[in-house]
Specification:
Blueprint (H helix, E strand, L loop, with lengths): L8 H8 L13 H5 L7 H13 L6 H8 L17 H12 L7 H12 L1 H11 L3 H7 L20 E2 L6 E6 L1 H6 L2 H13 L2 E4 L9 H5 L3 H15 L6 E4 L2 H15 L6 E3 H5 L12 E4 L3 H6 L4 H9 L3 E2 L14 H4 L1 H18 L3 E4 L2 H7 L8 E3 H11 L7 H8 L5
Helix pairs in contact: 1-3, 3-5, 6-7, 10-20, 12-13
């Protein structure tokens, strides 16, 4: 098995031992900015992992908290002048500590079952969403509640054809779009068809494995990666599009580390649509763009989404201090205070901007920001693109206008 867990500890130790403690990885680390304590930064975590691998430190509750408190945001990616792969080291450390980490034991059991029977898990969650989920949110056991749709996206037809075919693409829906925000997937399909692309939602897609890896369940994540590779590598498509930067990062860059091969055609919609849409009539709004961490750091995309927003006729209002929203998958469950601190900081940036709308390109960021940003819409980039190139052209009532009315703004 070619996973990070199966690598020889000596190889991981050799990589970590390159660290000369220069601190380059601390500059953008959100947890370091929130708390300057050394073990809560990338450099400190590397030193702890080095101690674990050399036997100087034994697994403990405190060590687990330090290693699992990493956001895995990727801000340190590429920042080490000696090339230490810090996220890979953190994943490896979590896999080593998984058996001794009791705090997240229930979540591991829950995820194992959910990944085995995802549709059943969705049905049970939907049945309990009106009584159990609000109660858990009120007690502070879960950070927020969100209404689930009637059916997942992937229960729709598998191929969406067009009359004049410009090309053919596949969509990797991911768990959040498939089970929580299927409307975003529908927006993407609508936009692609409007531009002349046949869309494929292949049967057999499973979770990308990011949540499993974050809990140290490397072997389970490897199995998911192999299934997805088998499904998507056989498709004759121009691109594999995802509305979640974490999924894209996993498919394209982490799968080669996990199973020795990745899906090279996987890409974020920002990269795909950048040269495929023209400047359209102004929507007449101002927007604050929130950079998802994995889009900005792991995929290296900052200009692409901004160009698309401006092409759609929206004025961007930038913030010098824009940062992580604190969602980070399961981080917001287990490190609620720190997650909330990051969220409040970004919320202040948004409020200070006085922008009409918040735009991002990550479903998780939408969930997180919507907790505190309640006076203006928080939209996915694909909704803005659909607004500009589908609804407005058809002279239909727009998604943006509907969202504005929902939060009490004038349409």
């Amino acid at each position: 098995m070619n996973s990070t867990r199966s690598k020889e500890p000596a190889n991981i130790l050799k990589d970590i031992s390159k660290c000369v403690r220069c601190g380059s990885c601390r500059v953008l680390c959100p947890t370091s900015a929130d708390d300057p304590l050394e073990p809560l930064g990338a450099r400190g975590r590397l030193m702890l992992l080095r101690g674990l691998l050399t036997g100087k430190i034994q697994p403990s509750r405190l060590l687990n908290e330090r290693i699992f408190s990493c956001l895995l945001c990727g801000a340190c990616t590429g920042k080490c002048p000696l090339g230490v792969d810090i996220p890979a080291a953190i994943y490896y450390g979590r896999a080593l500590l998984e058996k001794t980490d009791k705090k997240r034991g229930f979540m591991r059991a829950f995820l194992r079952l959910s990944m085995k029977w995802p549709d059943l898990a969705f049905s049970l969650a939907r049945m309990s969403q009106h009584f159990l989920v609000p109660a858990l949110a009120k007690l502070g056991i879960i950070p927020f509640s969100h209404a689930l749709p009637e059916i997942p996206l992937r229960r729709l037809e598998q191929v969406f054809k067009v009359q004049k075919k410009r090309g053919r693409v596949a969509v990797f829906t991911g768990c959040s779009v498939n089970y929580i925000f299927p409307s975003l997937g529908e927006s993407l399909i609508n936009l692609l068809q409007q531009l002349g692309y046949e869309v494929v939602l292949p049967k057999g897609e499973v979770c990308c494995g990011a949540l499993l890896r974050s809990l140290g369940l490397e072997d389970e994540a490897v199995l998911q990666a192999k299934k997805n590779y088998q499904v998507f590598s056989r498709l004759k498509v121009e691109a594999i599009l995802s509305l979640c930067p974490t999924c894209t990062m996993n498919l394209k860059f982490d799968y080669p580390k996990m199973i020795g091969k990745g899906l090279e055609k996987a890409m974020d919609i920002s990269a795909f649509f950048r040269d495929k849409v023209e400047i359209t009539g102004g929507i007449g709004k101002t927007a604050f763009f929130h950079d998802p961490c994995h889009l900005r750091y792991s995929l290296g995309m900052q200009e692409e989404p901004r160009e698309l927003i401006q092409k759609a006729g929206i004025e961007l209002i930038e913030s010098r201090d824009s940062g992580c929203c604190g969602f980070a998958g399961l981080y917001c469950f287990y490190y609620r205070d720190r997650s909330r601190s990051l969220l409040q900081r970004q919320t202040k940036n948004i409020i200070d901007s006085r922008a009409d709308t918040v735009i991002t390109s990550c479903p998780g960021c939408i969930l997180q920001l919507s907790q505190t940003v309640t006076d203006r819409p928080v939209l996915h980039l694909v909704e803005i693109l659909e607004e500009a190139y589908c609804y407005r052209q058809a002279d239909k009532k727009s998604v943006l206008k509907a969202q504005m009315e929902r939060v009490g703004e004038k349409p």
